[in-house]
Write a structure and sequence with these properties.
The chain is mainly β. The protein has one helix and eleven strands. The protein folds into two domains: 33 residues; 92 residues, Immunoglobulin-like (Sandwich), CATH 2.60.40.2890. It starts with a strand and ends with a strand. The strands form three sheets. Strands 4, 5, 7, 8 and 9 form a five-stranded antiparallel β-sheet that branches. Strands 6-3-10-11 form a four-stranded mixed β-sheet, with no helix packed on it. 12% of the residues lie in helices and 41% in strands.
Length: 137
């Protein structure tokens, strides 16, 4: 099998194969690559401020990677600050919080929030826990 070159001459099969290899190799180098994944710095701590307007103490958990990690207790009608290890953030720096009031069957479950480096989290627990809000600043 022979191909026709620009000059009208026939190219031998070996030359054609070399051209195909060069073209394929150059196209492989043009593939789109994603940037490096944002991996949390293990030494990084994220400040979580909890303003608990509920009268009961609330045990606070981080929901990450399909598991619960206990963070501490937010006192009833009190302000609590907890430092979270960055490892609790997923690859997308996402976090969800779960609050379990001691002595009640109510629950507070936050929406998923994305936390950027340098931000802190504020969780406002209302007396009706279903109305609680989570924000990153």
């Amino acid at each position: 099998m022979h191909a026709i070159g620009r000059s009208g001459r026939r190219l031998p099969s070996l030359a054609l194969a070399a051209v195909v290899v060069v073209v394929v190799a150059s196209l492989a180098g043009c593939s789109h690559k994603r940037g490096p994944a944002v991996v949390p710095d293990p030494a990084e701590k994220i400040r979580l401020e909890i303003e608990n307007h509920h009268y009961l103490d609330v045990t606070v958990y981080a929901v990450h990677d399909g598991q619960l990690t206990r963070l501490g207790v937010a006192g009833g009608s009190a302000h609590t600050e907890i430092m979270l290890p960055a490892r609790l953030l997923g690859a997308g720096r996402e976090l969800r919080l779960y609050g379990d009031p001691i002595g009640s069957s109510d629950r507070a479950v936050s929406d998923v929030i994305v936390v950027q480096p340098g931000q802190y989290i504020e969780w406002l627990l209302e007396p009706g826990l279903e109305r609680s809000t989570l924000s990153a600043y």
